[in-house]
Amino acid sequence: MTESETSTVATDVPLLPEDNPAPAVCHTRPKVVLVGPPGAGKTTIGRRLGRALSLPLVDSDQLIEQESGRPCGSVFAELGEQAFRELEARHVADALATGGVVSLGGGAILTESTRALLSQHTVVWIDISADEGIRRTSGDNSRPVLESMDPAAHYRRLLDTRGPYYREVADHRVRSDRRTPQQIVADVLSFLESL
To answer: Where is the composition biased (Polar residues) (predicted)?
Structure first.
């Protein structure tokens, strides 16, 4: 792993209309998969990266929302973490069978089957410091996984728990602290060009 600060799509995996540009190249697998903690900017970076590559964005959280008709956080709260992770793993597998740019939910890497699938793909870890992640997610009631009496301590524990998994699956790591989306996309594009 290095460090630096379409679309042929399965018919059962919907794409977001605003993220489905005319493809320059057809892919049967993602060009790149984005992972990282809540608040790192995966969806924002994924949209911009998709536009830069003329590829669609497939976001696993949005696939869950499209199927359920409810926000991901509501589905998580209703099902509980274990059942949610099983549902998420199915949608991640569907997303990884598509072309384009794929963005995964922050906890998707907790599932062993997802990590095994990711070993076959180009994965970029959009990383963030605890302080910046706390700032970006504070007051966000749409993320039940972050609910806690002490959100800052909880977010730090989340990073400590998930960090080794992000490290395991990532081919490249990009920090998003104090950086514009354009800078992050440029880093990811540079990495992809080096492959």
So the answer is: 1-10
**What is the CATH superfamily name and number for domain 2-8+21-188?**
P-loop containing nucleotide triphosphate hydrolases (3.40.50.300)
The reply to whether 42 sits in an annotated binding site is: yes
* Cα angle, residue 67 at apex, residues 63 and 69 outer, rounded to 5°: 110
State residue 102 phi and psi, 5-degree precision. Answer: -115, 130
Count Cβ atoms below 10 Å from residue 81 Cβ, excluding itself. Answer: 14
Please provide residue 175's backbone torsions phi and psi, each rounded to the nearest 5 degrees: -80, 140
The answer on whether 106 is annotated among ligand-binding residues is yes
CA angle 34, 72, 152 (to 5 degrees): 75
Distance of alpha carbon 85 from alpha carbon 114, whole angstroms:
10
Q: How far apart are alpha carbons 145 and 192 in whole angstroms?
A: 31
C-alpha 158: how far from chain center: 16
- Counting every residue written for the chain, the total comes to 195
156 is in an annotated binding site: no
In tens, the pLDDT along 99-109 reads 899 999 999 99
Per residue in 112-136, pLDDT (tens digit) is 999 999 999 999 999 999 999 988 8
